[in-house]
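Is this the right way to post structure tokens for a design question? Let me know if I should format differently. Anyway, here goes:
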């Protein structure tokens, strides 16, 4: 997927828009788009500004039953 040349602020604004517009039906695609935008950011400072939205999108994906982690759960390890 080829992204248009966006400024760091425009990329952050799009990640923020994806975060606030995400639904159970769109979370997988929204997270994928946000990850593409995050990867295209040039500096660590730019990526740090998007961290809270990325964590939020991941939490929504997890809460809404997105991809499940493989392996044992923490309860079974005790």
């Amino acid at each position: 997927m080829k992204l248009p040349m966006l400024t760091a602020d425009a990329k952050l604004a799009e990640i923020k828009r994806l975060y606030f517009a995400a639904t159970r039906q769109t979370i997988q695609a929204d997270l994928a788009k946000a990850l593409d935008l995050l990867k295209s950011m040039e500096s660590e400072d730019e990526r740090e500004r998007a961290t809270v939205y990325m964590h939020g999108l991941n939490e929504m994906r997890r809460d809404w039953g997105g991809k499940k982690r493989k392996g044992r759960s923490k309860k079974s390890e005790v």
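Format looks fine. Someone answered above. Worth noting: The chain has a mean pLDDT of 85. Residues 72 and 78 are 11 Å apart (CA to CA).
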